[in-house]
Amino acid sequence: MFAWETALTTRDTNRIVRPLEWGFDWLEGFVPGGGEAVDGAHALETMIATSEAITARSDEFFGYVTPDDFRLEEHFPMLYPTNVRPETLAEDRELKRQAAVGDLERAPFLRFTSPVRTMYPENDVVNARWYPAPAHKEPGRPKQAIIVMPQWNADAFSHNALCTMFNRFGVSALRLSKPYHDVRRPLELERSDYAVSSNIGRTMAACQQAVVDIRSCIDWLETQGYEDFGVLGTSLGSCYAFIAAAHDPRLKVCAFNHASTSFGDVVWTGQSTRHVRAAFEQAGLTHDKLRSIFKACSPDVYMDKFAAHPKRTLVVHATYDLTFLREFSLEVLANFDRLGVDYVSKVLPCGHYTTGETPYKYMDGWYLGSFVYEAFKRLRENRNQLALGQVA
Fold it and tell me: Of 156, 145, 213, whose CA–CA distance to 179 is shortest?
């Protein structure tokens, strides 16, 4: 299994080792000293202090003003591949051909301007493919929806099948493109490198933007009459989803498909971030320093916030995971036990990348689908019980 996992994580040849950049300009308002230029001798301690400041003021960092330009648009669904394998590029060309000759159906996408702005205009237009569930025949049934965030470097079709499955349960879905992913990816990139990179400030700002985008999607769903909300995140998406749920009590159904505690731990030890670690090693940073630097976008520091409001939670982890090491996933479960979080744990007998291979992708789909079905059903039942109690 380790050999298979390693083969999958090394098949892409377009990973780039970029030099370390502190990126203080991405974190204005949280850098001690007012964000003025920091020299190399003090950059490390200043970035650690910045991460501490963000953690202490996380409600402000992940706060936002609701967008005022929500709109549904019809577009041809394109792949936006992040690898250069021949089969992937052929699929991309075929989709473009179908769109050009009118053989491809358009799909609805929620679009709006992200409350968190960057220097990349294409990244600042949030994109979420909309999967509305058919109107239910049951009178008074609450409208329920889930926001789905796929893994790092996912193409635009990843997790769409999950959204279709959730529709069958009567749950609508927004498949949200993470910052710097698919249509939001700057033209100079082949991969979604700017979401996790050796530019530390930009990486933390990408987390901020992702969390705020999730919360903004809930705002739009509320305008459409939805009452119950959930979030599903895979890998990097699970980190973003966790932090969003920790800061937004409206998210009462949470599915974390691969979960870890410290962002720095994953960057340092994970197979898929070897090229990012290489940049940090070249700059003389250590594992411990990286853990401190990335504290602000680490789920473990927001555990108390997450546990403060009731929610139903699923954690899926893999026994042979070389990207989110098993020990880190077990730390998540230990924290949940300590804090009394209502959760379900499921284990896949595979690795991180092999989760997307047969038969494991079907096992994973079953775990995610059955949990989402039961969790939203429980929300409806609790709502009905409260209504009956009020009537009585």
Answer: 213
Confidence check: pLDDT of 302 > 60:
yes
Query: Which pLDDT belongs to residue 267?
Result: 98
Neighbouring-strand partners of residue 113: 125
CB atoms within 10 A of CB 86: 8
In this predicted structure, the answer to whether residue 392 has a pLDDT above a threshold of 60 is no
Pairing state between β 125-131 and 171-176: antiparallel
The predicted-structure confidence for 32-47, as pLDDT tens digits, reads as follows 986 566 767 789 999 9
User: Angle formed by the axes of helices 40-56 and 200-223, to 10°?
Assistant: 20
Closest C-alpha among 377, 364, 323, 376 to residue 158: 364
pTM, rounded to two decimals: 0.96
- For the chain, what are the domain ranges? 2-30+41-391
Cβ(279)–Cβ(20) below 8 Å? yes
CATH of region 2-30+41-391, choose from 3.90.1230.10, 3.40.50.1820, 3.30.1330.60, 3.40.50.300 = 3.40.50.1820
What CA–CA distance (Å, rounded) separates 186 from 192? 9
Q: Which residue has the tokens 């049934």?
A: 141
Q: Shortest CA distance to 123 belongs to which of 26, 1, 255?
A: 26
State the DSSP code for 135: P
Q: Give the tokens for residue 294.
A: 């990335």
